[in-house]
Predict the structure.
Amino acid sequence: MENPLIAEAIGAVVNPVPGRSRFFLEGPVGAGKTTLAIRRLRHLLQSYVPAEQILVLVPQRSLGTPYRQAMWELDMPGGEVTVVTVGGLARRMIDLYWPIIGERAGFAHPEQPPIFLTLETTQYYMDRIVTPFVDAGYFDGLAIRRNRLASQIIDNLNKAAVVGFPHTEVATRLKEAWDGESAILRMYDQAQACVNGFRSYCLAHNLLDFSLQYDILFNFVLDEPACRRYLFEGYRHLIADNVEEDTPRAHDLLQEWLERCATALVVMDQDGGYRAFLGADAAGAAALKSSCEDWLALNQSYVTSPEIEALGQRMVHALGPSVQQSFQPQRPRAAHDQVDPKTAIRHEATRFQPQMLEWVADQIAHLVYEEDVSPDEIAVLAPFLGDALRFTLTDALSSRNIPVRSHRPSRALREEPATRCLLTLAALAHPDWEYCPAAPDVGHALMTAIDGLDLVRARLLTEIAYRPREGRPVLHTFDQIRIEMQERISYLLGERFDTLRDWLEIYAQEPAPELNVFVQRIFTEVLSQSGFGFHGGLDKGQVTSNLIESIRKFYQVVDIHGRANEIPLSLEYVRLVDQGIIAATYIQNWQMEDTGAVLMAPAYTFLMANRPVDIQFWLDIGSGGWWERLYQPLTHPYVLSRQWPAHRTWTDEDEFLARQKALGRLVLGLIRRCRQRIYLGISDLGEQGYEQRGPLLQIVQRVLRDR
């Protein structure tokens, strides 16, 4: 590495001198910070520091993958380094010290083990709390789906936990900052009632959601001398990476740990904080520098080209002085007047979105076949990745024999066609549920399950073969259909339909009690085979894996806690998904290396994966979605933060500045994760047919006009 700062960092970070063993390292994305941290980890292990004394803290499980891979490659005998989030650490400590803290924390049954909830099971129990309130007239006049209502109430609980204020103060803080219609004040109080009711329900039934795990760790576990000794004396060597994406309370814990550990390395990305909507506190992360004995700021990226670096500077400059001063300047490897940032951009303006997507597919095909770019070095990004956009672009790339995968976290499980297909087939395979799916759902399931079956013939087949009888779903065989209809559908598709139908009928004679067993079997024995819709589908295989894990965790929690009725547990899960619960985070989805496929993802999802690519495509840059904040009337990521002063009103000016800074952070983050070129897709009319003239398009136009 030619940069003298890197040479200095290697000596100071990897092998610190006595008296300067707590080091704070910051710099832009791609400056080599995580690489240095991994070298620090290897040095500790090779210096015979016991692995059990080393703790690696990351804000998201997927960000710990490089450290786990480094340990596997080193393959040293002995114990294992702990790579964990603060939430994961909380769960471990609660599980270990439950007999000590269970009663003190206020649980009704401390003699029984705790039940840890996932995001999905948290929504299941929150729905139990919210439903009576909604039936009583709460949130009347608020146009929002039930699943989104529950998720915002859960988000309020989580914000209180990660910031460190009592959950009973959520409504007070929101009302103090509100300067709009008075009707929303009443809804804040109603949301507070749901928050309080859910916390009481959890304490009464030994249920621990994310917020309660956090609160117990900081309010009870860390108050126990035995627990403090286990943590602070057990883990003597600390590495904390991506601290800008972690929460205020995580920073509080790190602050105390830095005073007690033998060695520490704190790593921060400049201009980060993309997880602000989840409680990330970049300002609090920067304050950790004062607790370290030495620090170094790297100033050069080894990912981006000089043209890309200059493009990032121009983009931020185009946002205006009030935003520009919020970002750390990155010193490019060549002076600004020596490089032209416009050479790093390719763009195409079209009238309609489908034309833009065809251009994107053509450019990707050219890159793959003419320029020999690996598909997994190409990322297609949008502010929101809707079903229509994903389907259209996936179909366009598939027709060009280019593999593609998508990653869309925080979506409702039912929004995945593969999930709807599997659960509809599950209803057909369990006639004892007496649950008959709607005919359109059956048609879509058949279209997804059978390769080559289009929507028209799927509907025709469903109208003829699907005949519910006495409250039980029934599928007739293909040979019972009239000859002229068989010919319209085709005998090949009819044969595949009969194969699927026969399998469902045989399974229904002796169904397994667990729904996850059904999903695993039908995927393995039928749907993944040639001629069926899941064959060779990367996304569908991943969705199936996630669904199996989701069902298994649902069984573990609900079976232990019990249910309010006698509905079969599998059917209860199907109905829960139909209500629109948001999927939990599955770490397999974040493993983006070596897939051999083009990645499609929302822009923020790509940022949090923290993996650079050679080529990026930004879609619909005229869309306001790049700039606008997701509408959440019952919560607020900025007001419910440690940086927001009490009793201050959130104004339109605050909203505008927050959006501008978020856009600058987003654009700069994407640019710093691109090695070569960025392709900008522009369509005059968006998916809904409206003109698109959003702030990102205006910024790009300023950069392109700049001489």
Notes: DSSP finds 27 helices and 14 strands in the chain. Residues 231 and 476 are 62 Å apart (CA to CA). The longest helix spans residues 538-561.
